[in-house]
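Exercise: predict the structure of this protein bound to nicotinamide-adenine-dinucleotide.
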Amino acid sequence: MKIAFYSTKPYDKLWFEPLNREKYGFTIDFLESPCKEASISLAKGYDAICIFVNDHVTAPMVEELHRMGVRAILLRSTGYNHVDLEAARGKIEVLRVPSYSPEAVAEYAMAMLLTVDRFTHKAYTRTREFNMNINGLMGRDLFRKTAGIVGTGKIGQAMIHICKGFSMDVIAYDPYPNEGLSVKYVSKEELFKDSDVISLHCPLTEETQHLINDESIRLMKKDIYLINTSRGGLIDTPCLIEGLIQGTFAGVGLDVYEEEEGVFYEDRSNDIMMDEALARLTSFPNVLISSHMGFFTREATKAIAEVTLENAYALEQGKELKNSVLS
Ligand code: NAD
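Solution:
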């Protein structure tokens, strides 16, 4: 099995290289290039490509891969909204990592919430400059506040658990409620109205695109916290900016951003920020942005490598493809 590994960062090799050497012996070529139309020809001669969340595989790219004899797209992610699945069906397998460490993402969501609430990021920079003034750093207790969890899958459940650990009252919205879960399900509108904290944990679909928009923001209390560790497209960015200007939000934590492709994971510190919405978001003192790193723990990245290579092995051996997103 020959695998073209796109968008390689140094940390990808940490687990993939030794695990492959010890257990599988595939030929893996680690390419720094992202997977896009201009670089799809690099996949010629490979059995599979391995991509990350900001590698978008469009229908023409699927056609090209199929034409070159590539049999599978190995996703190093849970989400699969970045591949044209209809185009892939019947032509090329798409295998994902259904779960690696939901706790990693949920813990990160709570870290973002605690940071925007208690300003630990600002305290850190102040004290390093020997500024011991605490003016402007007053937060709010989370104790007994209402956390609204949108999407009660693996990460949402881990987040519910964490919020309960903080003695928060937890409500949830999911069109497919999990009856075995000890949480109060409410309608989407009730969740928007009653939450002090909203944390998004649903996938990006046609239905969830711009779930956070003018209408939903209008329903929210003043001074709430909004945390998005799911997908940028869940939030209509201009509406969020307007909500921030109107003072709806006490704090916003964004680990994902609708236009993150080509920007997140790159060091662009010498470039002018051309994305005006992103520039505006970074200008708010109560907005914390990070570069899609909720998954980024040793445990999660190790599990991603294990499942991705196991997916490749199942393909090679003609075994059941239990992590196919096409079935
Ligand atoms: P999951 O499939 O276990 O759970 C998703 C839940 O969302 C399901 O319960 C589903 O019923 C629910 N859902 C579907 N449509 C919905 C809707 N319209 N409204 C509300 N809920 C809806 O997925 P997961 O493992 O919990 O992951 C959740 C999301 O987290 C992924 O889709 C991915 O986008 C994101 N993610 C982010 C990172 C990161 O590094 N920031 C890492 C992994 C996953």
